[in-house]
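Would you be willing to look carefully at the protein I have copied below?

:::
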Amino acid sequence: MGSFSIWHWLVVLVIVVLVFGTRKLRNLGSDLGGAVKGFKEGMKSAEEEISSPSSHHAGGHTIEGEIKGKTRAEP
C-alpha cells in the first residue's frame, strides 16, 4: 500500500476518459490554461502597479518640513 504502479494510473486514466469523454477533458484543459494565463497577467499588472511611482510619492526625494500649531497631549 502507498505506491501505485504505472498500470494503476493507466486504469484510472482509461476510466476517467470513459466517464467524461475526450471533448470534456479537452475543454477542461483549455479552461484551466486560460485561468492560469489570466492569473499570470493579473500578477504582472499588480507587480507593475507596485513598482511604478504613484502621484503621492515625491519621486524618491525627501521632503522636509515642520508642523506648526499642533501639540502633543502629555499624560
About this structure: Residues 6-51 form the longest helix (46 residues).
